[in-house]
Amino acid sequence: MNIEEVSKNKKILLDEIPYNVDDVDFMKPGKGSAVYRIKFRNLMDGGILERTYHSGDKLKEADVATYDMQYLYHENGNYIFMNTDTFEQHYMTEDRMGSRGVFLKDGMVIPVQLLGDAPIEITLPNFVELEVVETSMSTGKETVTAQNKPAKLSNGMEIGVPTFMKAGDIIKVDTRTGAYVERVGNKK
């Protein structure tokens, strides 16, 4: 692929390692050819790489396919996903998953990107609903400013929630920040 065709979120192979294009900066100096400063994110370990290219340079596009997959379970350091069309199972290691694994719920269907047969990236929904399993009792004191108290959720996370929350409440949590968003119901 010509350097002119590279755009944000394209998947590129550099030294046979897949990278995501996070940013492309185009500069046209007064003399000479155009310069492209590209910021890459390694899809294997999350590392950042910046490189400069000139007009006419070529890069190899990674053969990445995205499939809807159902999260099945976590076992022996791997997260197991099943392709909802072919029923093939794919494994993603804890290292590759990072902290995102805490938001996976059994049966959840999410987009998973594969390079060959290996999952390299997942796309979580922006919000997930989780149950508050344990929290301290509210003091009952009203204040002008919002107060938070710690709460343990069904996925093992501990976050700050408003003082009116109690065990059994279902809340919406932002997967990008890990923060409380709103109360959505109560488990009965």
Layout of strands and helices, then pairs:
Layout: E1 11-14, E2 17-27, E3 35-42, E4 48-54, E5 60-61, E6 64-75, E7 78-83, E8 89-93, H1 94-97, E9 109-115, E10 118-122, E11 127-135, E12 148-153, E13 158-162, E14 169-174, E15 180-186
Antiparallel strand pairs: 1-2, 1-5, 2-3, 3-4, 6-7, 6-9, 7-8, 9-10, 11-12, 11-14, 12-13, 14-15
GO molecular function: translation elongation factor activity
Subcellular location: Cytoplasm
Family: Belongs to the elongation factor P family.
Polypeptide structure, described:
This protein has about 190 residues and is mainly β. The chain is elongated. The protein has a 5-stranded antiparallel β-sheet, with no helix packed on it. It has a 5-stranded antiparallel β-sheet with strand order 8-7-6-9-10. It has a 5-stranded antiparallel β-sheet with strand order 13-12-11-14-15, with no helix packed on it. The chain is built from 1 helix and 15 strands. The mean pLDDT is about 85. The protein has 3 domains: about 60 residues, SH3 type barrels (Roll), CATH 2.30.30; about 60 residues, OB fold (Dihydrolipoamide Acetyltransferase, E2P), CATH 2.40.50; about 55 residues, OB fold (Dihydrolipoamide Acetyltransferase, E2P) (Beta Barrel), CATH 2.40.50. One of its GO terms (cellular component) is cytosol.
